[in-house]
Structures are given as structure tokens and as C-alpha cells.
Amino acid sequence: MKRNNNRTAIVVGAGLGGIATAIGLRLQGYQVQIWDRNEKGGGKLQEWKKEGYRWDLGPSLLTMPEVLNDWFRLADRRIEDYLTLVPLENTCRYFWQDGKIIDEDDSFWKNPEVQSLLKYGEGIYQLSGKAYLNHPPSEFWRAFHWRNWKDLKHLPKLMSLLTLAQVVEKKIKDPYLRQLFCRYATYNGSSPYLTPSTFLIIPYVEAHFGGWYVKGGMRKLAEAFERIAMEEGVEFNYSQEAIRYENKKITSHQGIGATPDLLICNGEAIRTANTLLKGCYTEKEKNTINKPSLSSSGFIILLGVRGENKELKHHNISFTRNYPEEFKSIFEKKELPHDPTIYISITKREEGGDAPEGCENWFVLVNAPAKTNFSEEESENYREKVIQELRNRKLLLPSQRIEISRQIHAGEIAKRDLTTEGALYGWASHSIATSLFRPAMKHPREEIYFVGGSTHPGGGIPLVLLSAKMICEKILKNFS
Fold it and tell me: Would residue 464 count as lying in a domain?
């Protein structure tokens, strides 16, 4: 049941976090508008179709589905009326260039070495799940209740100065497993050799909640939330770009103005502070926001492939021979990796209609530096290099022929998603400070709030939805 009030809110950006926040505020009785410069919503949850092929362009894996369920319960909806979630028996297949293959399935998680690492990650989850994932940083203290005293023994893990790679090396002897678990740092666009060991929470979450796919494509998530928002009375204003916010008034590129009680920004907090809200921050505040190093970006190749490689699963990763060198290239040299780790997603494995008969739709992703000055020639040359690597590693078979090819580099990502230098997650999580204390969820003086992957608690579908939940709770508390 909606609360009755006359307050107004404008959400800038119709990404998943923005739409979820709009639903939460509408349920509190707010009159809510969403402004978005694009012709349709969804943020990074977009897709591309061509000649009988379909590709997801953004997130490709869903974890922690209970977070999604919570939003449907909050809106008094049944998730099955909007979405079909498909559990993946094999979350990912890993390839090494010496021929080694590991499947991330039930038997994988039962490996004794893996179990040891999961136990470590479980301890972090038991404590941070109550604190970090459910409360803004200023309210972490709410988790340290006497009822949770048993979990406090895990506090040293949360405050450890060891990196993810260092803990993995201590607990895992198998070199293949070491590299596999180091890759979880890339879930937030960071280096395992710099990011804190607290991010070992990620493999625990993946093991505990499983990996899921959304039937019809990941964009269906955004469409379901948009449908609920419209049913609740949220007003969507597409092709309307917010360009200025001064004296509590927001103005669009078309000259439309409004003075809402609340402004919610669903976009990268770094870029927003330097553009739309540049007049709302002091130079010192902007310097603080701009100072930390950026997360990685990505080099994406969409391939329409005639012929099939049955060895490939829905999600696949082919590792570099030298993992430390790859991250040195990305974060120190700011170069595209010479010997890259390559991620391949083929949704045809779950969706027969995503490619013509006898064909496959490959979404290929290489970790890349946050850097936008790529020339078209450099982009095309790197695409050919990655495709040759796929052939050299016997992932793209001699019998397979490429029918469609499109590459997307960091410069295009920056333009498409309005991110700083094409960074996928805002700040890199290369310290305890930038991991736990990301750009603030609320402006220090004004009624401006931030939701999405660049603020607390971070990137990825479940964390963005938790971000929206915290924002709604914070607003309700501030105005109740």
C-alpha cells in the first residue's frame, strides 16, 4: 500500500538501479519521474540484434536471486508473472592454453582446496552480509549487534591488509585453481594483486546462490522493472537528457525544467559530479572524487559464427599464460593485454532463437584499461588479434566461419554509458578505503542521492538492487 505524501522526485537515468529506486519511492507515495537521454531504459542491460542473431551487451550472469525476489515481494508482485529464471548447472567452463579444462559445477565446489577458500569467504559474508551489503557505510555499526557476536570473529578478515591473490596463494596449492580464484577480482574491475581479500566473498556467493540466466535475455530484467514502475504510476521521460542542476532546479537539453524535492542520480557518480552536478561540489570535494584510480574497462567483440563448438558452454573463460602481466598492462601501462584472458558468452546454449540453426552468438570480452583514446585502426587490429587468439587456442574451430563482427572499445563504452574513460565500475577497489567507502550515496548538503554500480555497495545486478533498497530506506528515514 502506498503512503500518501505530496513530495516529488526525479530519477536521472533509467538503469536497473534507477527504476528500482523509482518503484521504492512510488510505493512511499512520491510523485516520481524518470529522465533518460536514450529512447528506452535499462542502462547497461541492452541487447543488439542482426540477421537472426541476438547478443546481451551488458551483465550476462545473475547471482543472489533472492535480492531480486525481495523487490517483487516489496511491490506485491509474483516474479513468475514477469520473469523466468534459469539455473545453470555449469556456471562457467575454464580453459588453459596447455589443454587443462575445469568446470564450475557441483563437483568443483566440493574440491577440498576450494572448500577451504569458500569457508574463508563464508566468514566474510556472515559479517559483511549484515553490514556492508545491507547498510550504507555510515551505518555499518548496525550490524555489530549482540545477536551477531558469533560473526565478529570474522572481523580480522574484513580488515585484513592481504590482497585477494595473497590469500588465494596461502590457501590454494593448485596453480590452475589459484588463477581461477584470482579472476573474481574482475567482477568489480580490479586487479587480484591489489584488491583486498574481502572480495573472496564473491566466489562464496556464487557457490551458495548459484549462477542464473534470465529467459529471453538479461534485458528482460530491466523490462520487468519498467513494467512494474509504469503499473505503479512512475512517469518515464525518454529522449530527455538532464544537463544542469542549479538552485534545486534541474534542466533538460530540451529546456524542460523542474524543481523536485529529491534528485536521484542513476549514473556514474564520478562523471555526474563533474558534469550535471559540478556546481554542487567544492573543488576539494571534486578532487576527492576524482583521485582514486579507475576500474578496468572492456574490449567487446560480438561475433555471429556459422558452425558450432560443442566444447563451449554458456559461460567460458580462456586464461592468459601470465596473469600478473595482464593486470600490469591494464592498470600500470594502460595498454590492451598482449596475451589476454578471454571471456566468451554464448546465450544460444539457453536460447535456441539467439542464433540461426547451426550457428552461435559469441559475446567476447577482454579486460581493458579505462582509456578512451583508441583509434579505429587500433580497435580493428586488436579485434583481429583476439580472433586469431581464439583460433590459436582452438576455441574458434577451423570449421567455423565468422558471419558478423562488431567491436566496442572503451571510448564507445564511455559515450554509451556516460562513464569516466569507459571504466565499468567507477573506482577500482584497490584499497580498503575504495572498497568499503565508495562515492557517497548522498550529497553532503543537498537532497541528492546516488544509486548504481559506482556507489555503495558496488557493481553487478544484485548489488545495484541493494543500492536502490538502501537509498529508499535512507529517504524514508530522513523524511518520516
Answer: yes
DSSP 110-149: TSHHHHHHHHHHHHHHHHHTTTTTTS-GGGGGGG--GGGG
The residue from 208, 227, 262 where one domain ends is 208
Residue 258 and residue 111 share a domain? no
Supply φ then ψ for residue 120, to 5 degrees. -65, -45
Quote the CA–CA distance of 478 and 480 in Å, as a whole number.
Answer: 6
Q: How many CB atoms lie within 10 A of CB 358?
A: 9
Indicate whether 438 and 391 sit together in one domain: no
Give SS3 for 303: strand
What CATH number does the domain containing 273 carry? 3.50.50.60
- Strand-pair partners of 163: 196
Do residues 401 and 434 both lie within one domain?
no
**Model pLDDT for residues 377-432, shown as the tens digit of each residue:** 999 999 999 999 999 999 999 999 999 999 999 999 999 999 999 999 999 999 98
Q: Is residue 424 part of a domain?
A: no
Q: Are residues 75 and 21 in the same domain?
A: yes
**DSSP conformational letter for 239:** S
Question: Of 292, 303, 306, nearest to 423 (Cα)?
Answer: 292
| Burial class (CB within 10 angstroms; exposed 0-12, middle 13-18, buried 19+) of 405 | middle
- Which contacts (CB < 8 Å, 24+ apart) does range 383-389 have? 383/301, 383/407, 386/299, 386/301, 386/340, 386/342, 387/301, 387/303, 389/318, 389/339, 389/340, 389/342
Please check whether residues 73 and 147 belong to one and the same domain: no
Which pLDDT tens digit goes with each residue over 208-229?
Answer: 999 999 999 999 999 999 999 9
Q: How many domains does the chain have?
A: 3
All three cell numbers of 82, joined, read: 514477469
Residue 417 lies in a domain: no
Q: Which domain holds residue 325?
A: 296-369+375-408
Report d(CA 345, CA 315) in Å as an integer: 5
The residue to which cell 534528485 is assigned? 263
Q: Alpha-carbon distance 122 to 154, whole Å?
A: 9
Query: DSSP letters along 55-70, please?
Result: EE-S---B--HHHHHH
